[in-house]
Design brief:
Radius of gyration: 27 Å
Largest sheet: 6 strands, mixed
Strand order of the largest sheet: 11-16-15-14-12-13
Shape: globular
Distance between the termini: 32 Å
Number of domains: 3
């Protein structure tokens, strides 16, 4: 075989990089072993202990001196970080630095949209850039480890932590998780502005029964393999995620922090993970409450033997591990392996050489490029759900606009959940941004109407109605406060709280066009509100730059392109509802009788023997992948390179996309497949790829996908991952239901 000089160059470069990485890894392993050999048992156990540093005390300082702490949570300023590191480096026997950790979830100071909103962008680039910026800002304050991304598959919007997720789809979660890990960690963990990411929560936490946080799950191993584990595997094997966090829940009766099969067989043996496994806060002690462990000592034994390297906050290792080893209930090798993983992380982070924060470095926090990146992310996250008579973008003939609602100027709540270090004083709200950017040409009249999202006081409704009557259009900002979503904030009903719906109802009676914008951390049941509005724009919690992003979207300087990463139900009683559910034997035909059609004293009947709710009709409010634009797109000429493939083939898919409207805009072209027959029931369809395509008015483009047949693999009836031969349907469109489709076959 002949190679060009360029080919030879890249081959040699690859060999050099591999050799260099191998040499670096060996060097680190040698350092780990040398340090491990010097450590006492107590010092080893100390490395497995993570404590909260929010309120530091002399007790904590002494524990660090004694070598009893491996990591600190929530050291909230760089001066404190340096103080703690100085004690660890200069006053402990071995001088092992601490890993300073913090929940940096969707931004540090510059807050980006919540992860669910970022997923709506279908743009991994903005996710990676956002986590790069978060890492850079956090690094300046001494933070070297974050507990993100959360890649739990979430199909229930009653669960408050759905806000931290990338939604209901496995493939979209894989793509976004990989992007976020790469952004946080960069190419080298020891480089300035790189921090260790953490894949969480392992596993199935997003499937908590009833959407109640911390609750049990009963996901089968096959379901884990097909839907819940892939984002974790991708984050670890493709992006090199440095750490992993166990979840609070017990699945099939086994708490995650005590699940040896998941932590040793799947994570270590199958995936080759050599990073740190840390528990969630106090979750080892929670195993006692669950009834999986007799007491804290028993819980510490089960967690260590299962493969948990470091425990967060609960202290059971420090209190019990020496006795457990003396009693032969935990092997010395188990402790050594855990400490190897922890020391390896610290060497990879460069902490031994560079533990301190440089207090003199010029800060990048809130720099212009950070703010503009956050603004772009917000713009791409917004989902246009309705736009009657093309009300949006607002026309230049509009001279007076009423701004109403509790979320129009909610600088704190706009940041959303898990924005610990965000500052409301730096948040740019829609009210302020609209006044600043467009106030010279448009008269804005503001009346809050309700003081906050849960407010039931209708005293100011009359003022809001009078303001609306004076305006050409009403901009109504509704939603939920940041505190209503996130950890421990589950809801039984996911409707708009307080008197928000009544406010919209009264405003609609003015006959003025109403643009309803919703800031929320989840999908809300807004069927009534959508019907009452002329346009609906879903903003999620958009972060620091949400205001300027809203302003530019409303006036057409930017065009909405977001697509829903979760299905919107009409009623909470429909949950769980998600697009990629397995096929069933009696799906609804959508011609069945409904509740109000049943005659009085009707004879007992099964009413059609299909699967549907008598009182909820058949369709979701909005389907996965749905999202409108200010323009329109036409799909045509779906073509497959062949209709018969082998398991090793790659299918080329093309479709013509045309912008048939008046605005240059992005369209998220989505590719789905359906496995028509399998050894187990298969999903009705599954997202396999997507492209963001930008087109000018009238412009057409042939969009091409390369679909390896290997992407059709699943864990089958024998719990083997394979592509089963048979017939498939391929679908391409702008959402999960409005698609073009063609069939193909995978040969045996």
């Amino acid at each position: 075989m002949k190679y060009s000089y360029l080919s030879l160059f890249f081959i040699l470069l690859s060999c050099f990089q591999f050799t260099t990485c191998f040499a670096q890894d060996k060097k680190i392993e040698d350092k780990v072993e040398a340090l491990l050999a010097k450590m006492t048992l107590k010092e080893k156990i100390g490395q497995m202990n993570q404590l909260n540093g929010r309120m530091p005390s002399e007790k904590l300082y002494q524990q660090i001196r004694n070598g009893e702490v491996g990591s600190i949570l929530n050291a909230e300023n760089p001066e404190l970080v340096n103080q703690l590191q100085k004690i660890a480096k200069e006053e402990s026997t071995l001088g092992i630095p601490l890993v300073i950790a913090r929940d940096v979830i969707h931004g540090f100071k510059t807050i980006f949209p919540i992860p669910l909103g970022q997923a709506a962008s279908f743009d991994p680039e903005i996710v990676e850039i956002g986590s790069q910026i978060a890492a850079r800002e956090a690094y300046e304050k001494g933070i070297r480890w974050t507990f993100a991304p959360m890649m739990d598959i979430a199909r229930d919007s009653r669960w408050g932590r759905i806000a931290e997720s990338f939604g209901e789809d496995t493939y979209l979660s894989e793509i976004m998780a990989v992007a976020m890990v790469k952004g946080f960690q960069g190419k080298d963990l020891s480089n300035p502005a790189s921090i260790a990411a953490c894949a969480k929560h392992f596993i199935a936490y997003g499937a908590a029964e009833g959407g109640r946080d911390y609750n049990l799950t009963n996901i089968t191993q096959r379901q884990l393999r097909n839907f819940y584990l892939p984002p974790f595997e991708k984050a670890i094997r493709e992006a090199g995620c440095a750490t992993l966090m166990t979840s609070f829940n017990a699945n099939d009766g086994i708490p995650a922090s005590g699940n040896e099969f998941l932590l040793r067989t799947v994570l270590r043996k199958e995936w080759g993970f050599d990073g740190v496994v840390v528990t969630d806060y106090n979750s080892i002690r929670d195993m006692v409450r669950i009834g999986f462990s007799e007491d804290n000592k028993d819980a510490a034994m089960k967690a260590a033997n299962a493969g948990v390297d470091m425990e967060m906050a609960s202290g059971t290792y420090l209190q019990n591990m020496e006795a457990l080893i003396a009693e032969g209930k935990v092997e010395q090798k188990t402790i050594d392996d855990a400490v190897r993983n922890i020391l390896r992380l610290k060497y990879r982070l460069g902490l031994f050489e560079n533990p301190y924060v440089n207090l003199k470095v010029k800060s990048s926090i809130y720099s212009e490029n950070h703010l503009q990146a956050a603004k772009k992310a917000a713009e791409e996250s917004f989902v246009l759900l309705k736009n009657k008579n093309n009300l949006l973008p607002l026309k230049n003939t509009i001279k007076t606009i009423a701004i109403i609602g509790p979320m129009a100027d909610a600088s704190h709540d706009q940041m959303g959940t898990w924005a610990f270090d965000g500052e409301k004083g730096m948040t740019q709200t829609p009210l302020k941004a609209l006044q600043k950017q467009y106030g010279k040409d448009v008269k804005f009249i503001y009346e809050q109407g309700l003081a906050f999202s849960r407010d039931n006081n209708k005293t100011n409704f009359s003022k809001a109605i009078e303001v609306a009557k004076q305006a050409d259009v009403v901009l109504l900002f509704l939603g939920e406060e940041a505190i209503l979503s996130g950890e421990a904030h589950s809801l039984a009903e996911i409707n708009l709280k307080g008197a928000q719906s009544q406010l919209l109802e009264e405003l609609s009676k003015t006959r003025k066009p109403v643009v309803t914008m919703i800031m929320a951390g989840r999908a809300l049941t807004i069927e009534k509100e959508t019907a009452l509005s002329d346009a609906v724009l879903y903003l999620w919690h958009p972060g620091t730059m949400g205001g300027p992003a809203v302003a530019d979207i409303l006036f057409g300087k930017a065009v909405p392109s977001g697509k829903l990463p979760i299905t919107f139900p009409k009623y909470a009683g429909q949950i769980p509802v998600y697009y990629n559910h397995d096929k069933i034997g009696r799906p609804a035909k959508k011609t069945e009788i409904l509740l109000n059609d049943i005659p009085l004293e009707a004879k007992q009947s099964s009413l059609g023997t299909t699967s549907y709710y008598l009182d909820a009709a058949f369709d979701n409010l909005f389907d996965f992948g749905y999202g409108l634009s200010y323009t329109t797109f036409e799909y045509s000429n779906l073509s497959l390179s062949t209709d018969v493939l082998s398991k090793s083939d790659i299918l080329t898919v093309t479709v013509d996309l045309k912008n048939t409207g008046k605005f240059q805009a992005n369209e998220v072209v989505q590719l789905y497949t359906s496995d028509l027959v399998g050894s187990i029931a298969r999903p009705i369809k599954e997202l396999k790829d997507f492209r963001r395509i930008n087109l000018k008015p009238g412009e057409s483009k042939k969009v091409a996908f390369k679909l390896p047949v290997s992407k059709l693999a699943f864990w089958n009836i024998n719990n083997i991952q394979t592509v089963e031969p048979g017939k498939f349907t391929l679908m391409v469109g702008g959402n999960s239901y409005d698609v073009l489709q063609k069939d193909f076959t995978v040969a045996p």
